[in-house]
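Assemble and predict.
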Amino acid sequence: MGEKVLMKGNEAIAEAAIAAGCRHFFGYPITPQTEVAAYMSKRMPKIDGVYLQAESEVASINMVLGAGAAGVRVMTSTSSPGVSLMAEGISYIAGSDVPCLIVNVQRGGPGLGGIQPSQADYHQATKSTAHGDFHMLVFAPSTVQETVDMISTAFDLGDMYRMPAMVLSDGMLGQMMEPVVLPEPKDPDNDSKEWAACGHRNERKHNVVNSLYINPQELEDLVIARYERYAEIKEKHQMAEEYLADDADIIIVAYGSSSRVARSAIDKARKEGIKVGLVRPITLWPFPEKAILKHAEHAKVMLSVEMSMGQMVDDIRLVVNGKVPVEFYGRTGGMIPTPKEVYDQIVRLNGGEQ
Amino acid sequence: MDIEMKTAMYPLERRVTVVCGHYGTGKTNLAINLALDSADRGEDVVLIDLDVVNPYFRSADYASELTARGVKVVGPNYANTNLDTPSLPGAVKGALNHPGRVIVDVGGDDAGATALGVYTSTLKDMDPDVLYVVNRYRSLTTRPEEALEILGEIERTSRLKATAVVNNSHLKASTTAETILDSMDFASRVAEESDLSLRFTTVPSHLRDALLNKIPNMYPVDVHVRAPWE
């Protein structure tokens, strides 16, 4: 392990990807994500890697598909409107069983929206990215250090299950600076995978990477096989952090930046004697159902805190299935809830003024 | 810390001070401290935010607090908004001629210094202090050679020469007295190899007593630039 350095979240994403052996980056700049691309443009040429600024997000995601199909570790990064443009390509990637990393440093929407932080792309990341039956792995870091640690996990699990992985950050986590320890760098992981279309040299039969299937039965079989892998992932790879949750009457569920606001509010409420705790989803897909169900056994109420009009709250309600009431508090459009606002919600749920 | 103690350690002498450096070294937090302390000393101070590179964490984002304490703030036209348009107001030139104290917070690296270059000819006549801020813990400038390379790029782009080095080494909330002591050698080497003086070293106010008499030319600072949950 190296020593602590100060890094912006966006720079840390880039450096962590390089440390994880990624040498292929295709992207298009967009605020508040641009530092990832800027950092890659400086670093990749020095380490025999590829940084390519495409003419659009549509082009960059298709370059990711091509490089991924050739078996190399590849990524792109963008911010909310950019993911919308990439949607078609992401569906092709999922339908081709190609692993890759997609980073979304979320900003306010819909439309051009704004450049301030947001979490309004939860539904897009976890369920409605694009057409067809498919999922991505979705990771939601809440600190710059966790972002660094998660990048290699996202690459590794994507490779293991041959599927796209997304790191869902937000403008605040991307722009803020925190001390981090970078991992020991791994060698570039460009070894061809046995399925990759990287030239057979007359030594094996040729590989085809494709998402078009003429025969519907063949396509159904493939999708069903993919969903069997998804079921295994749901069983094995749910990740969540629990904070002061075991004795809590009120459970806040929050991820990313809003979880840090919630944590400050919880610390203040605990000082007032209110039994409140946090379940922080680290994977958004698979959704950490087990951690939430565990606390639905003892909590009197749950509160989803988000920087959106309420998206993850739907998943919490599905999981608890009426066992406890699930309420929502959020800000949107680039606004961040304050610790005071969340504290006031805690007091309200606890039955009013202390 | 009481105000008299802090303002007694005020490190600025010239009317105009330009704060530049690698982005993320803590220039904005330093500029805010210099402006607030100047106001506390009873000076008529204007803080000019020339950062058109960063979308968040700019001096102009702290305008309401600064204004409330008597600092005039001149910032990019669309600071604090959702508009990602780098545009500086005509008021910058007027503000540089402000008769009281003038502090200029420049965006990071040579990209940030490009905006400074617009005002080079005006600034040269004013004989400003140009402080080059270093942070030994900031990624990509943890070695003196790296910090010197960026200094060269900023000087070429802005066509202004730095007049002194400022050691602003910190690790945000993880900063201890050792963090700062361990940075002194780095900062001295940057100063020495650039033929500049090390003008002062910032310390978080709560570490001032622990470091008193252990480092020369200490300047205690408060942390203003922080995440909304801190």
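The longest strand of chain A covers residues 100-106.
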